[in-house]
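ok so for the tutorial part 2 we go from a plain amino acid sequence to predicted structure tokens. step 1 is just haveing the sequence, like this:
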Amino acid sequence: MDERIKKVQSILKKYGQEHVLNHYETLDEMHQKELLEQIEQINFELINSLYYRIKKEEKHEKDTITPIEYLDKCKLYDDYKTYENIGKKAIQEGKLAAVTMAGGQGTRLGHDGPKGTYDIGLESHKSLFELLCDSLKEAGKKYNVTIPWFIMTSRENNAATVEFFEKNKYFGYQKDKNIFFFIQGELPMIDTEGKILIGEDGLIKQAADGHGGIYESLVKNGMTQKMKEIGIEWIFIGGVDNCLAKMVDPVLMGIAIEKEVNVACKSVVKASPQEKVGVFCKRNGKPSVVEYSEITEEMSQARDENGELLYGESHILCNLFHVNTVERMGENPLPYHIAYKKATYLNKDGNLVIPDSPNAYKFEAFLFDAFGEVDDMAILRVKREEEFAPVKNSDSIGVDCPHTAKDLYQKFHHLD
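step 2 — the prediction. this is what the tokens look like for a chain of 416 residues:
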């Protein structure tokens, strides 16, 4: 152990992070071991480069943003059946897996536990996890196949998530046969001086690396390899908070296969030109998503000859990828976006500091930043009321909250 500590101390000294071991002697043996493992796994060069990026004002060449073509599911007409039949055949052959990103907690909803365990208020009291599972099982019954389900948790909620599934007998799925859990990547949080923060538990304070970490997590945890072993070719990736997510969609799959693209995504039309959502576009000729903060007033109002918004296709985190594309995207980390957050931490004297304003940086990648890795992709516009009922805010906000999700779910399933 002494040699191990010396090696760790040497690494910390090299990067000016010696303070990370300040409270090492106060930890029990289990936490000492965990802290050393954390340090050994950190990419300090990456953390340094991210910090320097904060301090240095980077100059970027202005991107050229142009509209992207899309298909409207309601206007496919004769092509609808063609796409549906192609996708249906692939699904029946067991080529589709579903991935649910469920690393978050339900804190914003006033819920103590993983967000996927949240009850949106239906009479059945089913959790978000169970509602998504119902959708998968219904599709499986329809196509006479079991859709393998891969669930990405976080270090914070993995144990509670797995325990929840155990208590509920995995909702009819079989662990390690057709339901698999894997943990999202994390990055240390740093203060304004670039120093890694230590949490109340004496360990390095880390934050999930954003939904863009999904590709790397799937690869590093051996999930893409497992998918290939069981014959999976296509992966639907979505969030746990959309209780109307249609993860098994033969039309979307058929479009991807017929058009020979490796990525196909769903969109809903913006509720208004001013709606604060990211929208699909072409960035320097490549598929992308432009954040609402990047869209000028002129762009947000622009319409085509049919009166449709040129930049009106909202990204709703419902994406289909070929497994080989996910593997390629997972080979290297995506660019990280910087968020300035409030974070409690232990100072050098071992006292807990609870800030009343932002004091730390966290780094996260966005899933859609990988879209530029492909030359083209398919966008399928779907109806908001049929496929998009997110639970992001508390009921007090009144938008994308449990109440609105419950209403949409009940209307779609004719439960009201």
